[in-house]
Amino acid sequence: MDIIKKAMLLGLGLFSLTKEKAEEFVDDLVKRGEVTREERFKIVDKLLKEAEKQEEEMVGKISETVQKVITELGLPTKKELDEILKRLEEIEKKIS
Questions:
Q1: Residues with Cβ < 8 Å from 3, sequence gap 6 or more?
Q2: What is the number of domains present in the chain?
Q3: N or C: which terminus of the chain has fewer CB atoms within 10 Å of its end residue's CB?
């Protein structure tokens, strides 16, 4: 079984995987003879890279969802609010 799939099935949750958890998980695999000591560092690195990739994907999905909700609710974006503030400041200058 692929090490990454096994890590997910065992509840490590790659999204919240720390180096310590990855090392602990792989050390357990070494003790059980499923992984050699020579493979240990490569597997820990692979797990951490996969965790980082999944975190980036999750952040991207969350960002897309938030943008979609903002659009659907008709809420102004920061850019739009900044433009309104700039126009308001220009109007205030003209009035003064």
A1: 26, 29, 35, 43, 46, 47
A2: 1
A3: C
